[in-house]
Amino acid sequence: MAGSSPSGDEMSSTDYLARHNVLLYVEDAISQLLEYKDENAKIIHGKFLADYFRSVHKGTHTMFREFEYVRATPHNRSCFIKSVWSCFRHIASHGELLSVKEYHSLLCLLCNDFPLDVVQRTARIVLMDDALDCLMSFVDFLYAFQIQFYYEEFVNACKEAYDHLLMASPTVVVPSTESWTQTKASTTETENVARLNEGVNSQTFFDVMEKTCGKLSQFTKRPSLQHIHSELSKLPKVTFYGLLTALSKNDDINAEIGSLPCHDCMLDGSDVDIILK
Amino acid sequence: MGDRKKSPIEERKQQYKDYLDKTDVTSQVREALLKLIENQPKDPMLFLANYFDNISTSDKSDKITTVHQILQLTHHSQQSFQTNLIVAYDAASLAKNPNSKKASMNRPGLTGSVFEELLATILSNVPKNLHATLLERIGCRASEMVPFGVFRYCITVCYVFVDFVKLCGSIFSVLCGKQSGKVTDKDICEIVISSLKDALDSLQDDNSPCSILEAAYVLRPDKLASSLLSNKSSKTDKSTMNEDDFMKEMIDVFTSKIKVLK
Predict the structure, then answer these.
(1) Is B50 contained in some domain?
(2) What are the backbone angles phi and psi of residue A136, rounded to the nearest 5°?
């Protein structure tokens, strides 16, 4: 057991506990212990708890757990994504294409009450909200799944921002921004449909999104604004799913999350490497 | 007071609560959380795993292991290390057998032999030849009693020393650069060693923050870089230095600054 290395200032106890979701893990540890002792008479409590916390530390704790637990913390989500990759990566190397239902079945092998809804939303990202019964490659699916699942709250905030911009009158005035677009009146139906397909002005979208994301709790994970901005600045106009697809393909954001290798390295290494990393 | 009929769920909850209390899980978890908040480690899960590991083996462990575990809870630069030092000292000073009638067994206090063993445990990851000189300076005789001030000083020195050894190792690999084998230019090493010596020599005995800053200023990156570069031009004979010698010399500079207590 090594002493920890020097770290920055100490934060308040409540902040520290909340940042690391300590109470959640302790509660779950105790529930697991009580469940276990009902089935096994002989139990060494200290060892059981030590094993539990060690598995959380190593990242093996989300396998075969219920969805509520898997979704509960950013750490759990990223470990689950990593397990999906390590368990099913052979699909990528075979180049098979699978449907939404098939990916859902795969996820249910690791988490038996995983909701279909999340998988469907992932499919929307991969397929750009079009032809949703199309087949998808494992690699595309996995990176889109990462964005949808790990950044769930952020994605919802993004959608809120995007819908707000779409439904608002053509003169979109976003207070306290420096560059807002003021287009002429007359909202005809064809114009609306066109806007749905073309998307919204990227800069405006970024500004509104920044505000909506500001309302999220400080402990909710989101991609850093710098990377979002770099994707948005590539095109003058962007659709919601266009942005999400771009984010899923962005290597910087992938590196920030830290569960999956970079796109080019997806098929490197053997299974042993993944487990040891 | 009438008997309130509890619902099955409430009964179950009460059962579990009693079970946890009876098996000491409640108090253990409470202790663990208190220690966690006190020490605020970067990785709380690993901290808790190690904490419960130690609990389950604590019946078999001796005084030295327990004290060592307390000292390992946090890095020596943290505020909570000072608290842990006090707790560790108390644990180390426990009488061997408080109920014994023999005077030598029930007297509390930190004996020299326990102290020496503790130091050896802390330094166990450092090769013996490297930490021998340090132990010569801060060790003590088996029969002596160790007061808290001395305890605090020596333990802190040991931990700083362990960090220092690690640092020297990485400095040496940096100096080696891409060369294979564990040797590098002797002159470069000498410059690094003498820079450290100069910095420590300039440290006045009063240990005021000002003098510490001045000493650190001697070691600033650009000064080190310029002295290394100026050496590069005047090279006729390439003699090399290996890692052991480098480490030994750096450690000698370090230990020369440690107060001799023996």
Answers:
(1) no
(2) -125, 150
